[in-house]
Amino acid sequence: MTQFRLLCLLSIFYVASVVVGIGYANKVNDGKSWMSYWNSALPRSSLPSKAVQQVLNPAEINMEPGLTTYFQGKDLQHLGKTVTLRFLKPTSNKATLLPRQVAKSIPFSSSKLPEILTYFGVKPKSAVAEVMKRTIKQCEAPAIKGEDKFCATSLESLIDFTVSKLGKYVQVYSTEGENENKQQYSIEITGVQSIGDKSIVCHKEKYVYGVFYCHKFYGTTTRAYMVPLVGADGVTKAKAVAVCHIDTTAWNPKHLAFQVLKIKPGNTIPVCHFLHTTSLLWAPM
Fold first, then answer.
1. I need a surface site. Which of 31, 206, 227, 261 has the fewest CB within 10 A?
2. SS3 call for 50
3. pTM above 0.85?
């Protein structure tokens, strides 16, 4: 019942019919459509691919046991390296990014949480309220050393943050898979392409409307790659964005990555992970 009520409430903010799959047909506050805003802010960047459009209208994704979560950087050059993955296709529109003028009118801070819950009709001690509280706190938490972070609640703010850090000439990448079934994949090491060591990664957070947690690491502490994968069936293919963290000295020693890889924080073993289908990576052209 609570979820149904939230969907009804969110329909007030859902932007009419889906424009190029993003669910963003309304005019933004400067009188331009989101498409015009994209073109003006990112003049050399093509409009989002279908996969990226689906990311902006994502479904909820939960961590599933048995999947490959972290791996070492050397695995990208290891012939025969296999990983177990599931590529869920984001098809739900219930967490759509809002137009900036609407997002600005809604509080987004821990101090305003009671007001936010009342606004959306969410019970204070409900599971939904806890998820909202957790997302806001994550957005408010201080950045770790060498990191610049920002939570975007509109497409305009998402683009503006990217432009402020990387400039206007950027390309957006996302993980794409043909099959949603969990299976083993082999890394085609000859096809691994470097995206570079300057990028912004935006993760879709759980909230009653679209919130992207974006962060950029300075220097050469991270490197991104586009990794081609072939399923164990020999037919299924996928392209996954991999991010490798070169320096993890500032990470929490209890981070899951260290438990999985059985290593300690440092700068000698790159810790890598594939981006979910609901994440975006931006990089200079």
1. 31
2. helix
3. no
